[in-house]
Design a protein that fits this description.
heterodimer, A: alpha+beta, 5-stranded antiparallel beta sheet, 7 helices, B: alpha/beta, 8-stranded mixed beta sheet, 13 helices, 12 strands, CYSTATIN_LXN (chain A), signal (chain A)
Amino acid sequence: MRWTLWIVLGLFPLVDGHPTLKTNQNSLETADAALNHQSGSLNSVLHLDDTEKAALEPTRVDPAFPMKELNTSHYPATRAARVAQHYLNYHHGSPSKWFMVHDIKKASSEDIPEVGTKYHIQFSVQEQATKEIVGNCTAEILFRQTEEQSAPEVNCTCDDLLKIKTSDADHALYLHIKHQPEPVAGTDIPDSQGNIPKEMEPFWYLGGIGASFIMWQQSNESTLYNMVHVHSVKQLNSENDLLAFDYVVLLHDMVSQEIIHWHMQVAWNPTQGVKVTQCNLLPKDTMKQPSAEKHKI
Amino acid sequence: MKGVIFFSALLVAVFSQKIFVGDQVLRIATKDVEQITLLKDLEELEHLELDFWKGPTHPDFPTDVHVPFASLQAVKVFLESNNIQYSIMIENLQSIVEEEKIQISRSRSTEQMRNTNSFNYASYHTLDEIYSWMDMLVSEQSNLVSKIHIGSTFENRPIYVLKFSTGGTKRPAIWIDTGIHSREWVTQASGIWMAKKIATDYGKDAFITSILNEMDIFIEIVTNPDGFYFTHTKNRMWRKTRSTNSGSSCVGVDPNRNWDAGFGGAGASSNPCSETYRGPRANSESEVKSIVDFVKSHGNFKAFISIHSYSQMLLYPYGYTKTPVADQQELDNLAKKAIDALSTLYGTSYRYGSIINTIYQASGGTIDWTYNQGIKYSYTFELRDTGRYGFILPANQIIPTAQETWLAIKTIMEHTYNNPY
């Protein structure tokens, strides 16, 4: 049994799929591949025993792993909920739909020996465009004990997520962009004063949703990420019916207080949602930082 | 279907181009009267929608004409085929228009500096503007407000604190600082608003008047002037001071890790390139030392409030250790009361607790030091928002943020006033 576990741990870096988003990494497997790995093809590949299966299964709470009730104001719950937010945004967000954690109602964690820590969070989120609050979200977030950064594994559902109807807005935006003579481009969103021109808002949202993928992948128990700036967005040519954009975004990690630059390419259409097709970390002083100058469109 | 069409039309209207994009202004150099006549003929062609800034009068004088984008080719062909020399004075009129709008709003804001009543509190200001505003406030209400020079920054900028006092000598005092981390712009902006609020309310509002009849209030609005200047000129996301670090090309020390409380312990970095670099030793930063010296020599501060952004939290000590402060219960109760008051205005919700539990372990922090000095009511605020805009909070949220924060601060001041120690 023990050796099975060692093999399991040894194989995880392979199975987890996408090369981790390290400094020199240039490209990333598509998000689809990463998602497949996350969503349970593991069991069939790895011949896990019952203990290991229990650790990975979303809803079973094994009494062998003691549950610890968490203070919902304290940072362990905050950080875990933020990961769920990033996950939710990547799977359900769009240029018209962007969620932020609103309130954490209940939180607990369990330490799973030799695996990691699994958090159980009940929370509500607020959609930023409509200001609607979606209550009754539950998430399980597993942070694995690995030497290198590995994306937390998340299961997250919200009861009335579908009540937020943005498909009309998304479709209208999609058609509008398709019919523009010039490709979309923008810099410094928001500008120093916090202004965002109305026409750039969807691209700010889209940047946020794309960045959610990166933030989800980069999170662990010692991080708390937010996207704080879109340095630039540029529409790319695309042959198929997906719109494609090249972004440079600034992420802020509250724990280290560092501002991290990421370059990413994002594909979107209203039916397929948002996908990050490529991303790489940029060196710290790689570019002029957001300045007080006006943005250019 | 109809809805989609209407929506698309609406979006097209919203996204439609601005008026002068691609328009050019040409400077035409005519060499003889014949060419002047040709230009006058051109003027007659209304469909071109030409706008002559300097009309064709005499071959010796240039003619300046604003040509809409749509007519550019026709006009240039006309000029070239008639051998009329011209140059492009303005390549894209729209960018000039936008530049000018900015200039106007800037000069408007400097014009409004005539007095603190016409100052624009709903916009972010430069260091110079804030320092000028301070002088104006002092001169308008010199019976209540004075400006104290407590030290100089690394780059030799003056560090000022505003003192609100109705007399006495070293009365029990309340301290408020904003902008210790320069990128947190809503804090300096809130500090300005609150200073003005105090000056306005004294003599009119019963609460502030009673406080000021027995206590002094000190506000340091730009606690990190070098960093603040840098956020305006080079890097909007700059956090630290701008002191140089020997042996490193990286600049700056985190002024909220540089205080003598748990200095050197976990919760700060020893790497000069890090955003949480503690510095070579406690109080190495003049921005920090100035406050330390001032507080120690004053000796009678009863509350100390240090304001940051973002996250919407009200925090009390400690950050450097899990050991609760002796006054934990009282500080916790007061924090709850303060954030309840804050939320009454706009429904903004805050979390609260000790630094180490609520946000992270942090050593060398301001309020850990002030608490250990015996200043019991030591609090750190983290203002709006929770991450949507983060540091770059829209200017239209400055006043609402300041207003609600003021309610929380008044709660702390009231408790301090009612519980002398």
